[in-house]
Write a structure and sequence with these properties.
The protein is mainly alpha-helical. The protein is 75% helix and 6% strand. Keywords: Membrane, Transmembrane, Transmembrane helix.
Length: 228
């Protein structure tokens, strides 16, 4: 499918804004993480100890915390009720580590409180997975051989775009929660500057993904109308 897109110059025009924003956001994440991973918090809290402190405050004693390999692989797994922190975050006392750990704890709190957008997004996971895996195949067959499959493929791809759209409020809310938690006696104003920069750059990556997916959808809709 990407081979087909490679020769479609209009497709690249549709997704160019998202690609440029993604490149900018990834560059800012690397730049800010590299800088603030060398700036340490005054309380000498590690990513793990901060997570434990917040989870205890919320009475979430059943949430486990694990160390995982990789760089920026941190995430909260609601099915296992496990907060997984990367090696650069788990034992680090850096400002970057605390910002990332607090963001992931924010997701755990969302799950605990049954945060509406998160529940809606999670309900779409099976359909979004199906759309991601099957839509390109159906679109290719539809463009080459059988038009009705093109419309089905576009509909499935639209679900993945909706999933990414719902991801935005979930991620922004987790970042907002992280900032509130860190301002509550953990970091001072000067330390919060680094957290703000890291979380803002991370949020841009989700906006970029949505813009790229939306651009792809618009191009597919254009092709669908042309094939009618």
């Amino acid at each position: 499918m990407m081979g087909l897109y490679y020769w479609d110059m209009k497709y690249w025009l549709y997704i160019l804004p998202g690609l440029l924003l993604a490149m900018y956001a990834q560059g800012k994440i690397r730049e800010n993480f590299e800088h603030y991973s060398k700036v340490y918090n005054r309380h000498q809290l590690t990513g793990r100890s901060l997570a434990e402190r917040i989870l205890k405050k919320y009475g979430m004693y059943d949430v486990k915390i694990e160390r995982i390999r990789g760089n920026l692989t941190d995430h909260y797994d609601p099915s296992a009720m496990t907060l997984r922190l990367s090696e650069d975050v788990y034992d680090s006392t850096s400002i970057a580590a605390l910002g990332i750990a607090a963001h992931e704890v924010g997701h755990a709190i969302q799950h605990e409180e049954s945060y509406g957008p998160l529940r809606f997004r999670n309900a779409l996971v099976p359909l979004a997975g199906l759309g991601s895996n099957l839509s390109y195949f159906l679109i290719f067959i539809g463009l080459m051989f059988y038009g009705p499959l093109l419309r089905l493929g576009i509909a499935l791809f639209a679900i993945t775009v909706l999933f990414q759209l719902l991801t935005l409020p979930v991620e922004y809310d987790a970042s907002h929660r992280a900032k509130v938690l860190l301002r509550d006696g953990v970091l001072d104003a000067s330390e919060m500057v680094g957290v703000e920069k890291i979380l803002s750059a991370a949020a841009l990556t989700y906006v970029a993904s949505l813009l790229t997916a939306a651009g792809t959808l618009l191009r597919l809709l254009s092709l669908g109308r042309r094939n009618d």
